[in-house]
Amino acid sequence: MTVKLALIGAGRIANIHADAITSRRDAELVAVTDAMPKAAQALADRTGALFKSADDIAADASIDGVLVCTPTDTHADLIEKFARAGKHVFCEKPVDLDLARAQEVVDIARDAAVKLMLGFNRRFDPSFAAARHAIDEGKIGTVEMVTITSRDPGVPDMGYASRSGGIFRDMTIHDLDMARFMLGEEPVTLSAHAAVLIQPEFRRIGDYDSATVILETASGRQAVITNSRRATYGYDQRVEIHGSLGVASVGNHRENQLSIGLADGYQIAPLMNFFMTRYTASYAAEIAEFIACIAKDRPPSATGEDGVIALMLANACLESVEKKTRVAL
Amino acid sequence: MTVKLALIGAGRIANIHADAITSRRDAELVAVTDAMPKAAQALADRTGALFKSADDIAADASIDGVLVCTPTDTHADLIEKFARAGKHVFCEKPVDLDLARAQEVVDIARDAAVKLMLGFNRRFDPSFAAARHAIDEGKIGTVEMVTITSRDPGVPDMGYASRSGGIFRDMTIHDLDMARFMLGEEPVTLSAHAAVLIQPEFRRIGDYDSATVILETASGRQAVITNSRRATYGYDQRVEIHGSLGVASVGNHRENQLSIGLADGYQIAPLMNFFMTRYTASYAAEIAEFIACIAKDRPPSATGEDGVIALMLANACLESVEKKTRVAL
Amino acid sequence: MTVKLALIGAGRIANIHADAITSRRDAELVAVTDAMPKAAQALADRTGALFKSADDIAADASIDGVLVCTPTDTHADLIEKFARAGKHVFCEKPVDLDLARAQEVVDIARDAAVKLMLGFNRRFDPSFAAARHAIDEGKIGTVEMVTITSRDPGVPDMGYASRSGGIFRDMTIHDLDMARFMLGEEPVTLSAHAAVLIQPEFRRIGDYDSATVILETASGRQAVITNSRRATYGYDQRVEIHGSLGVASVGNHRENQLSIGLADGYQIAPLMNFFMTRYTASYAAEIAEFIACIAKDRPPSATGEDGVIALMLANACLESVEKKTRVAL
Amino acid sequence: MTVKLALIGAGRIANIHADAITSRRDAELVAVTDAMPKAAQALADRTGALFKSADDIAADASIDGVLVCTPTDTHADLIEKFARAGKHVFCEKPVDLDLARAQEVVDIARDAAVKLMLGFNRRFDPSFAAARHAIDEGKIGTVEMVTITSRDPGVPDMGYASRSGGIFRDMTIHDLDMARFMLGEEPVTLSAHAAVLIQPEFRRIGDYDSATVILETASGRQAVITNSRRATYGYDQRVEIHGSLGVASVGNHRENQLSIGLADGYQIAPLMNFFMTRYTASYAAEIAEFIACIAKDRPPSATGEDGVIALMLANACLESVEKKTRVAL
Questions:
Q1: In Å, how far from its chain's centre is CA C240?
Q2: Beta carbons of C195 and A226 less than 8 Å apart
Q3: What angle do CA A204, A205, A210 make, to 5 degrees?
Q4: Could you tell me the CA-to-CA distances from B48 to A41, A52, A241, A313, B16 in Å, in that order?
Q5: Which residues of B fall within a CB distance of 8 Å from D244?
Q6: DSSP designation for A191
Q7: Are A263 and D233 in contact (CB under 8 A)?
Q8: C224/A224 Cα distance (integer angstroms)
Q9: Which distant-in-sequence residues (6+ apart) come within 8 Å of D204 by Cβ?
Q10: Going from the N-terminus, what domains does chain D have, and what CATH number goes with each?
Q11: Which of A171, B303, C86, C291 is the most exposed place for a label (fewest CB within 10 A)?
């Protein structure tokens, strides 16, 4: 079966997903829509898809699924619209910044019997997936502790930041999902600390730029997340999982493999500093997974429910910081 | 200007180059030909190009250049044909296994005032290019020694090997070009040693599977190449350039960034074991260079002449092994 | 000046310090005492020192300083005894498990105008010291976050563990001192989580084997400590300091520099798995520092006061775990 | 049994060996001699040994063995003297710069039934020894190629260089021994290239500062040695052994484990830049081996004969360079 897909949105990430689809033989990109017709038309031209309205896409019985790549505040409505139209939906995270609304559309998708996959792309990164696979194979024994380092290369613009839901719902949410992915047990309590250390403007919008979180599960497993909105040396994305038999560590990706050895030491390349470069392979793999879930009628490995739980954890982080206490989940 | 290109050949490497062209905005793939019409048609369909005959491509005044991706024994004739037709030519190495014929078509291309670029793709690898750039910037001072480790992941099939011209003309030739690229001076003498250590069949076809070469320039700079037709741990591609101020080293690419630490030590991923995966970026970069050379009318940085010299060095390696002596160039 | 020193205790760490002293030209080991005469005599014989009683050492006006290397519950009394006798004192951590008593003997030493140096040896490790030096030079800008990974190679025996004061006062205390050393600001609040994941016996003695701590300073700087009583892959001792300009990271020491590359990946050596091997250089350096402080009459860089603060932080960790809350300091 | 040893020479390396002996319980340093009485007396004082004449040491029946740590031109005579006196002899390489004289004293030692061990300390380095051990265990299969990188941190002074026998007999000789140690087969032919690239004074004394050598065994195994008298980034000492199943690689030792990540990349420490620091463990291990050979009456693993063969290979390198040809051995 060739899975027929439509792109809702024609921005940066939509273009990435478009390339992932056209490079595959088991899927076809048939339609694109966007609030900005020019962007939609350009993407359609580049890929051989057609520029259509969202309504036409929803009404087109030949389309199996859609990829929602629009601003966050439109996600929930679009999921609802296309789920009700019987389309499988891949949606960039988060489902919605409001937990109740997020849960609502997850329920709608479930009731409509369509697949709802969340864009937690890091689960599909070859290295993180290999770590998860090593755990599943028992290589490191029972998981005990997870350490997640996640530092963005540069501070986002304040316009984006102020609409993002804040560091916990915008950035940490990826790491909260990663913690769950690796822990293999749900957290039952958490402590979060956060501060503005980089850019005072974050204080003005009631946000933070630096945060650390401890999650603890019922059996005592612990996950630690450290976040910063700025890492001069590149996009720092590391995970360690410590188990009873050993440790699985995922290291960073560098811009190149050159080192220069001089009298005062060796100079090696900074880290890749753009999420699309660092996670190129994971974007392609998550789209392949969405296509496979439709073609083989199996549930996605990152679901709307995962999105709801991650959002709930992000909200708890904020509560922990604001109330200066540990939060039971 | 949009550079219009045609692919001569529709095999594995032609498909790679096709993707590199279609992903760019400064070039267009307009035609494909191949001795196997089915392969040519499939590639044409996939890319929106037209399947045409080689004669039609040569006669099409709108086509600026061609990429010759056919078997080695057709290279020289195709270069000649398209050069005479006024097309710029990108050709996979080698120009020809016969040195005189190779020089002849290089001369033809020069007389026809078309650009002839050789597919020494490694020069365009981001890490090797960064090393060359560091040398040019004076970071390691005057170059003194170059060390090239080049080990294929697995033995080629004997059918390919027997038509390949032998290890020196098929495999070492890339490293001989890399040595020249990094030395910054022409070699004037060389010593080569070779043996059959891996697969006895190489002996039957008069070839070797393991080789080491020292090149020396007039000022005494030395380059060492070690080659093996098999590396169980992946595709081993390293270069070190030692200079008066320090060393530039290019390391390998691993399959992933996962390490597993256990009681008996750490396990890390093997090297990428396929040349197309390892050199993905360099293939895209060499095509970008060919396009830029046409668009901006500048000479390519890996020329037909470079191909002739590399072949001459490969022949000298063979002579050194067979006569058990050092060879003056 | 040659600094004359006596060893109080003749066990494992005393022998290490004895070697550090005898290898130096600016110090002399003149006396040794121990509750076990045989051990004291053997160490005296090996080093050319004399076996004396603690009282004789205290009374010997030629002795400048003593190194207290006895069980924890004797530290405070011995510090008091030798401080009152006018000897400079180097003491293994902790000063005492009781905070009031620890503060008392620190005050006694101060009033006696003798130097009291605490054996926070990691501050003297060449790599950690180089990190601190890089911070002092401004290389990474203003410190923002510190991440400390500290995992023992193997679970201590339960007899030792039950007298140790628990994981926070025995093990984390080193990391709490390291956090202060690198943060450059005192923590004002902390959250700690702990569990028994490795060996159920820890539960029986009211202790934990796995812990994570977040420390926060008044300006919002954060330090994260992760601890485990067991790391199969060796003694895991890493520190990262993130600043406004970059990151300083101290990695682990391996048993050797051999890697074996095979078809299923590379195998590299486990970490050094014994604290005396990993920290050989830091033990020598802290003794050199103690000698220099006496010879040059300057204050030690790890004082009794540092010991008291670290103990206070360790107690707060325990309180945070037990009360399931964040603790203000 | 406690092995009683005497040091012939009291310079830098003699002091290193003295420490190795006194730290052990199975050996005792009983005497020291040196042409400079002051140096001998100082070393004797420091270690509790007696300053004696060489004749007295030779005549002392209680002494089991001697360590010859004097200038090269005295080695052969001292080996002869002490072998004839029935002492086991450890001697720094080379035995003698004259091949015939070297063979003569090796024969004398053999006829005197004393052990003659050569100071090829690198064989005892924990990492190189682990590589050899991995080969012996079959981990990398049949050895095919060996690559040795050996670059001194800094140019020796010309006085030393002019008495040293030249780069091949002074420096490469260690690598020639390492090649034999790892190849597991004797070389039968070699090609060497050398030049003066660093310091013109080497030309004046008829020596070279940069050299590359290929050794080939009867079955076609190849070893490559690259040598330089200067490496700004530290003492570069690496070995790779490629076999039918994989590769064993020994990497360098760095000054510390700190890395600093900044916007323009990561800075890591230079290599240890002093042979005594880099090879601390190997010096201790070779002395332990000499003591064990005497105590257990077993042959040393680096013999006088190994010294003769390495010298013969070094001479062949020189011949290859001077005659510009491959040399059959």
A1: 18
A2: no
A3: 90
A4: 18, 22, 47, 48, 15
A5: 197-198
A6: E
A7: yes
A8: 8
A9: none
A10: 3-114 (3.40.50.720), 123-282+309-328 (3.30.360.10)
A11: C86
Please indicate whether, in this complex, the C-beta atoms of A257 and B257 are within 8 angstroms of each other. Answer: no
Beta-carbon count within 10 A of B136 CB: 9
Neighbours of chain B (3+ CB pairs under 8 A): A, C, D
Tens digit of pLDDT at every position of chain C (329 positions)? 799 999 999 999 999 998 888 778 799 999 999 999 999 998 887 777 899 999 999 999 999 999 999 999 999 999 999 999 999 999 999 999 999 999 999 999 999 999 999 999 999 999 999 999 999 999 999 999 999 999 999 999 999 999 999 999 999 999 999 999 999 999 999 999 999 999 999 999 999 999 999 999 999 999 999 999 999 999 999 999 999 999 999 999 999 999 999 999 999 999 998 888 899 899 999 999 999 999 999 999 999 999 999 999 999 999 999 999 999 99
Q: Which residues have CB under 8 Å from B175's CB, separation 6+?
A: B148, B150, B213, B225, B227
Interface test with D, best of A233, A237, A254, A257 (most D CBs within 10 A): A233
- Beta carbons of B233 and C267 less than 8 Å apart: no
| C240: β partners | C147, C249
Residue among A131, A257, A261 minimizing CB distance to B251:
A257
Taking the CA of residue C88 and the nearest CA in chain A, the distance in Å comes to 38
Distance from CA of A246 to the nearest CA of B (A): 5
Contact check, Cβ <8 Å, A228/C242: yes
- Give D261's contacts in chain C (Cβ within 8 Å): 246-249
- Cα distance between residue B256 and residue A282, in whole Å: 12
Nearest CB among C219, C236, C326 relative to A324 is that of C326
Please say whether the dihedral angle defined by the alpha carbons of residues D97, D103, D108 and D113, taken in this order, is positive or negative: positive
Residues 6+ apart with CB under 8 A from B254: B234, B268, B269, B270, B271, B272
Which residue in the set C220, C233, C244 is minimally distant from A246, CB to CB? Answer: C233
How far is C315 from D182, CA to CA, in rounded Å?
55
Q: Report chain B residues whose CB lies below 8 A from the CB of D221.
A: 195, 197
pTM of the predicted structure, to 2 decimals: 0.95
Residues of A in contact with C236 (CB under 8 A): 247
Q: Are B107 and B209 in contact, with CB atoms under 8 Å apart?
A: no
Q: What is the DSSP string of D103-114?
A: HHHHHHHHHTT-
- Interface probe for B, chosen from C264, C266, C267, C272 (most Cβ of B below 10 Å), is C266
Shortest Cα–Cα distance, B262 to chain A (Å): 5
Angstrom distance (rounded) from CA B325 to CA B313: 15
Residues written for chain B:
329
Please report how the helices C126-136 and C280-295 are oriented relative to each other, as an axis angle in degrees rounded to 10: 60
Instruction: Express each pLDDT in B160-213 by its tens digit.
Output: 999 999 999 999 999 999 999 999 999 999 999 999 999 999 999 999 999 999
Q: Residue A326: how many CA atoms within 13 Å on its side-chain side?
A: 23
